[in-house]
Amino acid sequence: MLNTLVEQVTAELELRSALPRQRYLNRLDEALQRAPYQRLGCSNLAHVLAAQPDATRLIIKQGGAANIAIVSSYNEMLSAHAPFNEYPAQLKVALAKVGATAQFAAGVPAMCDGITQGEAGMQLSLFSRDLIAQATAIGLTHGVFEGGLYLGVCDKIVPGLLIGALHFGHLPALLVPAGPMQSGLANKDKAAVRERFARGEASRDELLAAELAAYHQDGTCTFYGTANTNQLLMEVMGLHVPGSAFVHPHTPLRAAMTAEAARLVVRNSRHGQRHLPLGKQIDARVLVNAMVGLLASGGSTNLTLHLPAIARAAGYELRWEDFAALSKVVPLLARVYPNGAADVNQFQAAGGPAWIIRELLGAGLLHAEVSTVAGEGLAAYAREPWLDDGQLAWRELPLQSPALEIVRPVSEPFVPEAGLQLLSGNLGRAILKTSAVAPVFWQIQAQVRVFDSEAAVHQAYQRGELSGDLVLVVRFQGPRANGMPELHKLMPLLVNLQRAGQKVALLTDGRLSGASGQVLAALHLTPEAAADGPLARLQDGDWVHIDAQQGLLAVQLTAAELAARAPALAPQELTPGFGLGLFSAQRRLVGPADKGATSLDWG
Q1: Separation CA 191–CA 428 (nearest Å)
Q2: Is the sign of the CA dihedral 495, 496, 498, 504 positive or negative?
């Protein structure tokens, strides 16, 4: 039986979203009435066919077969996206075997937060999600497709692709991953070198050697950050070929799963046996499943921004309160770095997403009878893929966990509550993740040190100024101020302070990403400082109370005392050489973090 609270959250989501969801479905039904290419004039169709081989021309001219769009984030610079170079050709061969055609419809930008950490380019990271959605729409807007295969992995790419695809929700869709790189230097060992470097105990050569040993080949990074959280959620939402999230690139199993994606998208098209438009597949139950999967796996806090934006694209109003409510009944079932020592390859070997889904289904914490691209309900995602005499097949997982330090059953979770908290008080609302933080650090009352940039914090640390218990405030990091960059480079120095015996916490209107852990961090504070939030009125020495268990975030000042202070002003200068000025409109238009921090207007 379905858990009562899961059922309640789903019902409330459906009720509050009834009108926008119906408007979305009405637009989808209207689009379904327009068959592709038959309405095109001869000149229009000639442009569609001009660069195609003769066989493709003939099939498209005759009609009656699916023409599939391929939208890819391939670039050769980034390890996670490099494997996609081979996919379009593989997919076209697989589609031809089922009588379908494909065209590479659009390439979308894919920037790497790992490269831009601590650099000005990070200020474009979150905005790239909306740009990817728009680029996806441009590729699909030619109106000649009957399905979409979306090739993407990392932080903003998968949410952007999905938002764009939902605006063409009359088409079936599959997300096609590339898989993680093989394990290199253990994530905890890499983190230890970073912390030593922050203390001045490791040389730059030693740091670079450690980083290169960790990031050493093509494929996705092996820690459970936003990129890999995206992949798990695509499984829980039924948008992958089952079990494809963490299969390595360039392997026979990966090739078989890529070919299966081609077969399924045709089967789910109007020419196939089971027409499944994406916009009808993604409903309130699927969105609740996504939140539950995020919580049970200890996934990235970035998804508290992306899932509301994805939901909005499908006509739903997802709220932070939904995450917080579900967190009270969803147990933590996985320990994957930074929430544990294992990397995603070890997680996959221990059962991976299939283990999480099987356990949650058994406990009634997921909606089982949802539409999926595989067509068998969510139970199809509770098995692992393998090659049986060269043929793709799925098999049951072992009943007992092969590695209790990595995955556990619902009956014996790591903790009974997943650990994603909604904080509120006279400073606003913020997201806090406790799954990687020791309970002794879940509460702090301390004076604040206020900074307006990540760089200023590093300078103060190097000067030895961050002494005693403190709440480190880094403001003007919200979407309207500077695009809401991740502040990942603060983690090593905060860990050093905490290990030296200080009680510390981070409070920011910025992001910390899927790498958040060990240190109490109140993130995504809204209203942000640049929107005249109370954060703009904090001063060094103010006392702030953060309590994860009570969901409290407050400064020990009255409303009158706060209002009497003049707010600090956001830095106005844009760092030259990064194209930041091109995104001025997005900074003006972007909405608050709890609404998805999006600059898009769905219309």
Answers
A1: 32
A2: negative
User: In this prediction, what percent of the chain has a pLDDT beyond 70?
Assistant: 98
| Residue 210: its H or E element | helix 204-214
Pairwise CA distance, residues 17 & 311, whole Å: 10
- Measured between alpha carbons, how far apart are the two ends of the chain, in Å? 38
**β-strand pairing of 391-395 with 384-388:** antiparallel
Sign of CA dihedral 296, 297, 300, 303: negative
- Highest mean pLDDT: which of 53-57, 161-165, 434-438? 161-165
Task: Name 108's Cβ contacts closer than 8 Å, sequence gap at least 6.
Answer: 71, 72, 73, 131, 132, 135, 136, 139, 152, 157, 160, 161
Tens-place pLDDT, residues 391-442 = 999 999 999 999 999 999 999 999 999 989 999 999 999 999 988 888 999 9
575-580: Cβ within 8 A, 24+ apart: 575/120, 577/120, 578/119, 578/120, 578/121, 578/123, 578/124, 579/124, 580/120, 580/123, 580/124, 580/483
Q: Which two tokens stand for residue 554?
A: 């407050």
Give the CA distances from residue 423 to residues 9, 91, 298, 509, in Å, rounded to whole numbers and listed in that order: 19, 46, 18, 13
Torsion sign, CA atoms 211, 215, 221, 226: positive
pLDDT in tens, 528-543: 999 999 999 999 999 9
**Domains detected in the chain:** 4-34+65-182+217-395 (no CATH), 35-64 (no CATH), 420-572 (3.50.30.80)
Cβ(318)–Cβ(311) below 8 Å: yes
How far CA 446 is from CA of 136, 227, 501, 542, 563, in Å, comes to: 46, 34, 14, 8, 22
Question: Helix count (H) and strand count (E) of the chain?
Answer: 23, 14
